[in-house]
Amino acid sequence: MTRTESHPAWLLPSGFEDVLPARTEALERCRRALLDLYARWGYRQVIPPLVEHLESLLTGSAADLDLQTWKLLDQDSGRLVGLRSDMTPQMARIDAQTSSAKEVRRLSYAGTVLRARPDLLGGSRAPFQMGAELFGVEGAEGDLEVLSLMVESLVHCAVPDLLLDIGHVGISQTLADAAGLEGALRAELLRHVERKAWSDVRTWLREHHCGMELTADFHALSGLQGDFDVLEQARRYLGHYPAVRAALDDLQCVWLVLRARYPDLEIQCDLSEIHGHRYHTGLLFSLFGPQRGEALASGGRYDDIGAAFGRRRAATGFSLDIKPLLPGFPDSGRMGRVWAPAGMDDLLWQSIQEHRRAGFVVLQDLQRQDVPSPQDLQAQGFDAVLIQEATGWKVQRLDS
Predict the structure, then answer these.
(1) Which of 22, 118, 92, 66 is nearest to 321 (CA)?
(2) Is 202 helix (H, G, I), strand (E, B) or coil?
(3) How many CA atoms lie within 13 A of 44 on its CB side?
(4) I need a labelling partner for 276 at 20 to 30 A (CA). Which of 62, 120, 158, 334 fits?
(5) Which one, of 153, 219, 214, lies nearest residue 180 by Cα?
(6) Cβ(329)–Cβ(29) under 8 Å?
(7) For 108-158, how does the pLDDT look when each residue is reduced to its tens digit (9 = 90+)?
């Protein structure tokens, strides 16, 4: 068997798929509904390019995205470019280039991102990413707005039984700083924490002579997961660090306000969760649906990323892939479908156009002028037909 026979030309690469009409229509309804929601909150849509110079996509704390980024040679400039795998670094670049230092900026976006590797086994490498980013607001106030909008996004998509998981990378980073090590050694310790490899953390601390007190602090951190009471436990065990107390204050504020705003929202925390710690600088949050598998939306604070573009700005935001949300997205109501016969009669054309402008879907047959039976038309999804009367063309419902 030749290679062509074993890999037909029509076979798509793994992780890519055609989005066929019914799903495309649902995707577009969802996209439009979410963008309208974000606009009502003051978030203005931008459309960044699919391709950027590699150093722009991977600059600074965004270097975490390196393994997910497709890399190409730009034949025009001879420089390496990348296909975006996440739009947040692009939002930070746009904000740094176009905003004033003290301006509060709200941006939203929607579009396909390309991943060199799927997030899940057998998952998509072309998510349709949407999100919102808030620039220029420090502290819990900004995090609360973004968190609330993230919750509203999934409520808008009719996702039931939501679970919010929140954390703060500053807690683990504070403990790592207490070890007195920098650079590669500090990064190595945080990688063990990120993997939740606590036996490796203990071994690492012992080998680097970090002392029993710090080892006890990391041991306490490993068990700080659960409901609201965990914040008080963290104060008892780790409150001797001022930065940890400040992080816990932010978490408590956010938790209490969200509990009041969304009484049905289940909230939990994992204070040792630091995924993307080279990217994020404060609160982390993920929102899960009833299946409690992968997060449906996630985000956090990332104040440092704009520095690489010449302006460090307070920044927080979230993103989601709308494809997994489509099966449950509410149908706003199918437009009526009208069958029209073939013909180039001016009055027929005018009637077809009038009904299209009125919101109907009008399909002109182009091949037959005789009207099919109502049963055949209903089987094809039609609700009505255009028929010619003495006074002109009129719509006649099939169920009348």
Answers:
(1) 118
(2) helix
(3) 6
(4) 158
(5) 214
(6) yes
(7) 999 999 998 887 766 789 999 999 999 999 989 999 999 999 999 999 999
Q: How many whole angstroms separate alpha carbon 198 and alpha carbon 339?
A: 66
Q: Are 395 and 386 in contact (CB under 8 A)?
A: yes
Per DSSP, the residues of 228-275 read: THHHHHHHHHHTTSHHHHHHHHHHHHHHHHHHHH-TT-EEEEETT--T
- Given the structure tokens 């001797």, which residue do they identify? 240
User: For the CA atoms of the chain, what is the radius of gyration?
Assistant: 27
| 154/159 Cα distance (integer angstroms) | 6
What is the 3 state secondary structure string of 371-395? CCCHHHHHHCCCCEEEEEECCEEEE
Quote the percentage of the chain above a pLDDT of 90: 65
d(CA 396, CA 400) in angstroms, rounded, equals 7
State the DSSP H helix or E strand holding residue 223, giving kind and residue range, or none if neither.
Answer: none
Backbone dihedral angles phi then psi of residue 96, each to the nearest 5 degrees? -65, -35
Q: How far apart are CA 394 and CA 373, in angstroms?
A: 17
Spatial distance between the Cα atoms of 246 and 355, rounded to a whole number of angstroms: 61
Q: Which DSSP helix (H) or strand (E) runs through 314?
A: none
Q: CA–CA separation, 128 vs 247, rounded Å?
A: 32
- Grade residue 6 by pLDDT with cuts at 50, 70 and 90: low
Kindly tell me the burial class for residue 221, based on how many C-beta atoms sit within 10 Å of its own C-beta (0-12, 13-18, 19 or more).
Answer: buried
CA atoms of 276 and 88, how far apart (whole Å): 13
Number of H helices, E strands in the chain: 13, 16
Per-residue pLDDT for 179 more than 90?
Answer: no
Measured over the CA atoms of residue 338, residue 343, residue 348 and residue 350, the dihedral's sign is positive
Half-sphere exposure of 87 (CA within 13 A, CB side): 27
What 3-state DSSP class applies to 189?
helix
Which of 57-66, 251-260, 310-319, 341-350 has the weakest average pLDDT? 57-66
**How far is it, in rounded angstroms, from Cα 255 to Cα 182?**
32
